Amino acid sequence: MKKIGLITLGLAIVAITATTGGAMAGPPFGNPADVEDGNHLWTHMAKARLVGKNSLHAMPYETPPPHGSFVESLDGMLTVNGHTGVVIVKKNFGKRGETTKQQVADHPDKYMTSVTVMFKREKGYDPENKDWFWAKYGADGKLLKNPKGMALAGRVAKGAEKGCIACHAGAPGGDMVYIHDRYAQ
Ligand code: HEC
After folding, report:
1. Ligand 1 interacting residues, C-beta cut-off 6 A
2. pTM of the prediction?
3. For the chain, what is the domain count?
4. Is residue 13 part of a domain?
5. Does residue 24 fall inside a structural domain?
6. What's the pLDDT score for residue 10?
7. CA of 147 to the centre of ligand 1 (A)
């Protein structure tokens, strides 16, 4: 009995550390809460036909690295867990120099390599970085991981020299968005 009590206590401490880790100390992304948020976001994007089998498609266009050789971008307002914010969904396709625009346009699902998303969260989520939530999924909607095994969801990779936030900080208009300034305040 005593042993079971100790194990339960141990598990409780692990659970508390895991939940508080998201917002307080600990890494700024890839925590269980970030993963849950990322999975929720995918479900809502699929319902809105921004991703998934019934997704609407735009004409692909060519982009510089690091995203796909061709990409499709869709954006608009999305409500997730009672919060409504701008979502920018970018589907990345093909291999640079090998895939053609026509191949991507004809068979988007076959050539899709990943889906990168920015979702504007509630005020205060990450004030230094315009409150964006960042996520990167495989074409199947599963969150991808960095080489350290951390899921790419949340404030990715806040404070680091490389990654979503570091690179997007240089986007024109001060909104962290490269392709347009539609949502710049
Ligand atoms: C080395 C720089 C760099 C990194 C790292 C990077 N991006 Fe981007 N991203 C860009 C550039 C440049 C564009 C615009 C060109 C394009 O559409 O590919 C862009 C476009 C986007 C867009 C469309 C909106 C916009 O800003 O134009 C989204 C969404 C996006 N990236 C998400 C992400 C996510 C999520 C990550 C991290 C997993 C990430 N990006 C990492 C450079 C980067």
Report:
1. 63-64, 66-67, 71, 73, 88, 90, 116-118, 134-136, 152, 156, 163-164, 167-168, 171, 177-179
2. 0.88
3. 1
4. no
5. no
6. 47
7. 19
